[in-house]
Amino acid sequence: MSNCIRTENQARAAFQSASKRLDPKDRVEYYNSWAETYDKDISLVSYSAPELAVNFLFEHYKGNPEEALVLDVACGTGLVAKRMNQLGFRHFVGVDGSKGMLDKANDTGLYQHLEHTLLGSEPLPAEPGKFDVVMIVGALRPGLVPISVIEELYKAAKPGAYICMSRVNPIPEDADEYKDKMEALEIR
Questions:
Q1: Residue 107: strand, helix, or coil
Q2: How far apart are alpha carbons 176 and 182 in whole angstroms?
Q3: DSSP one-letter string for 58-121
Q4: pLDDT tens, position by position, 131-145
Q5: If we measure between CA atoms, which residue out of 44, 123, 38, 122 comes closest to residue 82?
Q6: What is the pLDDT of residue 9?
Q7: What is the pTM (predicted TM-score) of this model?
């Protein structure tokens, strides 16, 4: 991906290309190369899921944001942490499968710890019962984060913690099956 001036059409093409990559290693390589222009592309296509999810969480959060420990799963470049930080959250642990995206997240200076992990292929590197808030925005879809990871998110959360999951699926025919499996999941 080039650092030249991006257009909305280029940004949309980048998103479409990402959603077509079902092989995990191929997808990681794509996200590594996309990291440089990802935030710009998000802006160009008016992708608002991180802001909407964080705002929803904040409206319902009863704890002290400054004291909350947040697990940002599939953190990408850190868009969720940036918005949460604007609302007073200060303690972040991020997990992502793309080293390029993690480098960008690290550049924000918001994360106390970042883990490079391919979700579904490797266990979620999170201590059970540790987090006050667990966030995953936009990554719950076929070929990216498998449904099996949802149980790991719950295990990482403290009793009474907030778990905020937002999903988008650019391939409608896959969306219903994934959603049905999510809703049928029984957390133990």
A1: helix
A2: 10
A3: HHH--S-TTT-EEEEET-TTSHHHHHHHHTT--EEEEEES-HHHHHHHHHTT-EEEEEE--BTT
A4: 999 999 988 887 788
A5: 38
A6: 85
A7: 0.89
Angle between helices 79-86 and 49-60 (to 10 degrees): 40
Query: Tens digits of per-residue pLDDT, 150-171?
Result: 999 999 999 999 999 998 765 5
The whole-angstrom separation of Cα 37 and Cα 109 is: 19
Calpha distance 59→127 (Å, rounded): 27
Half-sphere exposure of 28 (CA within 13 A, CB side): 14
Amino acid at site 48: S
Can you name the residues that pair with 115 across neighbouring β-strands?
95
Tell me the C-alpha distance between 50 and 42, whole Å: 10
- Angular region, 88: left φ>0, alpha ψ -120 to 50, beta rest: left
Is 153 buried (19+), middle (13-18) or exposed (0-12) by CB count in 10 A? buried
Q: How far apart are CA 54 and CA 94, in angstroms?
A: 15
Residue 6, SS3 per DSSP: coil
Among 143, 145, 163, 161, residue whose Cα is nearest residue 153: 163
Quote the tokens at residue 159: 């009793």
Distance from C-alpha of 159 to C-alpha of 83, rounded to nearest angstrom: 24
